[in-house]
Prior knowledge:
Blueprint: H1 6-18, E1 28-32, E2 40-47, E3 52-58, E4 66-70, H2 81-117
Antiparallel strand pairs: 1-2, 2-3, 3-4
Amino acid sequence: MPFHSQEMLEQWLEEFAQLGYSISxxxxxxPQDGTDGLDTxxxxxxxxxSMTLTYIQPEPLGSVHWGITFEAREDDLKLNAGRxxxxxxxxxxxxxxxxxxxxxxxxxxxxxxxxxxx
Length: 118
C-alpha cells in the first residue's frame, strides 16, 4: 500500500500546476491523522470560495485509487448560470487532479515493485 506524505502531495500539486493545468489557489494539502504519527496529507479545497468543502484522498486510505468527497451541506444551493459555469470549471479541475494523483500513485507502486525485483 502506498504512503503519501504531506511533502509528496505538495510536490505532486506543484507538478500538476507546472503541467499547465488550471489549479485553484484554494487547493491545499492539509495534515491528516496518520497511524503511528506518520506525516500524512490530505488534499482539500472549498469549491467556489467556501461553498462546499471537498477532499481528494486515496479510497480506501492507503490505496492507489483516489476518490473525491463532497461534504454535506445544510442548505440548498442555488446558482445563476455564471456561477454554475464556475463550479463546472472547478469540478473539471478536481476530476483531472484526482486522475493525476491516482496515476502518480500507480507509478510510485510500479517503481517500488521494479526496485524490489532488481
